[in-house]
Amino acid sequence: MIHTALDIETIRKDFPILNRQVNGKPLVYLDNAATSQTPQQVIDVIVDYYQNYNANIHRGVHSLSQEATDAYEAARIKIQNHYNIAKTHEVILTSGTTHSINLVANGFTSFIKEGDEILVSAMEHHSNIVPWQMLCERTGGVLKVIPMNQNGELVMEEYHKLLSEKTKLVFCNHVSNALGTINPIEEIIEASHKVGAAVLVDGAQAAPHIKADMQALDVDFYTISAHKVCGPTGVGMLYGKEEWLNKLPPYQGGGEMIAEVTFEKTTYADLPHKFEAGTPNICGGIAFGAALDYMNSIGFEAIAQYEEELLDYATKQLLAIEGLKIYGTAKNKTSVISFNIEGIHPYDIGTILDKLGIAVRTGHHCAQPIMDFYKIPGTVRASFSFYNTKEEVDVLVEGVKRAINMLL
Amino acid sequence: MTIEKIQEEIVDEFSMFDDWMQRYEYMIELGKSLPLIDEQYKTDDNIIKGCQSKVWVHAELDNDKLVFTADSDAIITKGIIAILIRVFSNQKPQDIIDANTDFIDEIGLKEHLSPTRANGLVSMVKQLKLYAIAYQTQLN
């Protein structure tokens, strides 16, 4: 029995997609860490935008443009409030986490000298490794790795040893996408600031589970993607402290990001527009705000409590299967279970589960270093959201058993 | 037997199955019986890119015919390769180049044809055909 204050049956009615069938079976969607599903409330906002006030923002004198601009800027304030950000212009709307990280990595090119050190955690997504490698190639900076242990937790003693005056930047995800580990970012941020290093936290995987407080964390940069929190794809946030955003050069040139342009010289617009060249994903930004409204109407505390119950239940049920091993057993983790069955390739399990209508992710989850660490080709990853049920966990467990029977 | 005849034979076999489970069970069986590639050919050079599971394919000429051996670390993928090898191995390179692959659709494996599909059936077919092109050039 799972106890929750949430009315899951009613919540599920908000998500039209959960009613569909896949391969003749009711969809059991357990790939929420890849992308979350979209509630009708957010779909309605998207439809309303295109039906009633689709226009380019920030430049029109006409009413539609004004309405669209107002809605877009209102969304920015919703994001600001959600993350307790001090100033509205510290919210940069991007195309998502990858864009946000690249914007910062690119901006740091002129700040990193040869021999400067950049620390990155061992459990990063490729999107939080490759941009920094590219930065190091451009600048002669040195990338160092904060190691992790077998449970999938960062070895904090090693982190503290790695920090020095040479450290200029530290990158870490708030929650690991492949393992679900919640990293001790408070400690990471505090220690890095002591040596004068800036910190970027990739919050993409934390977003649906944890309401992060930017001012309390005192983090320098924080990134998320809207599609992890019931919003649309192609839009996300870069939070940056004002002083950093003022220091960083613009990432892309174009319309919207300028104050004045002549062929001799261009002066850049103020924040946040300096980093928002071109026509943005207007509808996406507005829907992002609506998605946060939706999540907040359910409540992050209730969500976290329910997901933890689901995680505990699923972990117990799965571990009862002979030969099943879970990767990522950190004390602090979100509702993500990465696992393998001895003697079976994760791809085979995923293929059979799909035939049973169960959507999971298989593969290296864009985190090859983690797979190399465990010396495995990949894992099956089931990730649970607040709209998943105990019954769906049972369907997963039965599906895995059936796949094992077929495959072994 | 010609490529076309073998394909017809496979389509016939698969038409006896009522549902996906039987089809997959058969493929898994095929995968388990796939003659393994000689270890020396399981090199990085022989890995087909674009597959979530690892796939190794080796080709060599036996007189005027091309012989394929292969392996994979995933059993369903191995089953798919087993079917491809049955169709394309021991055939003349030019016949392999000219062959169409509509039978994959007919045996209900269409979903594996999508280029985004992680098992990379498309990559496998492409690789077999590339070998055929290379050896055809050699024969000429």
Automatic annotation (TrEMBL), chain A:
Job description of the protein: Catalyzes the removal of elemental sulfur and selenium atoms from L-cysteine, L-cystine, L-selenocysteine, and L-selenocystine to produce L-alanine.
CDD domains attached to this UniProt entry: SufS_like
InterPro entries, sorted: Aminotrans_V_dom, Aminotrans_V_PyrdxlP_BS, Cys_dSase_SufS, Cysteine_dSase, PyrdxlP-dep_Trfase, PyrdxlP-dep_Trfase_major, PyrdxlP-dep_Trfase_small
E.C. code: 2.8.1.7
Enzyme class, first EC level, given as a word: transferase
Domain called Aminotransferase class V: residue spans: 28-396
The entry's keywords: Pyridoxal phosphate, Transferase
GO molecular function annotations of the record: cysteine desulfurase activity; pyridoxal phosphate binding
Name of the protein this chain belongs to: Cysteine desulfurase
Pfam families registered for this protein in UniProt: Aminotran_5
Cofactor: pyridoxal 5'-phosphate
Family (UniProt): Belongs to the class-V pyridoxal-phosphate-dependent aminotransferase family. Csd subfamily.
GO BP terms, alphabetized: cysteine metabolic process
TrEMBL record, chain B:
Ranges for domain Fe-S metabolism associated: 11-129
Superkingdom of origin: Bacteria
Gene3D superfamilies assigned to the protein according to its UniProt record, in alphabetical order: 3.90.1010.10
InterPro entries: Fe-S_metab-assoc_dom (IPR003808)
Pfam families xrefs: SufE
Family: Belongs to the SufE family.
Annotated protein name in UniProt: Fe-S metabolism protein SufE
Organism: Flagellimonas aquimarina
